[in-house]
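Q: What structure does this chain adopt?
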Amino acid sequence: MVLHSDNKLVELESETYSAVGLDDSLGIVGNPRVLSLLSSILERSIQKNESSLKVSRKQEVVTIFRGTRAPPSMSIGQYIERIFKYSTCSPCCLVLAYVYTNRYLQRIDGSLTSLVVHRLLITSIMVAAKCIDDE
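A:
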């Protein structure tokens, strides 16, 4: 957050960061809110895309991230929480990873499905962490 002479801008940025769980100055213990927001966004997107593929009977675009077997039994929320717990990435990395995921899917004209999400998510989080958190 950049400090400006206008205190309103600083307060607005602080409120926005706090709303999505990126502000750790509040002393709240536990997972940032951005984890649950990201998992719910991804889960809704997967449900929408998979039902759309069933209705249209269109084949899913095969990418290097697509699994060939059934999706992992771990939910997206559990997966994101596990990555956050055992990695040293910041909550900002998760937001950037979501942006990377969307950009990749738009570029290949693909959709997010349960066979793609885990591999694509860990890869995009790793790239985001390299961009943001590496010193």
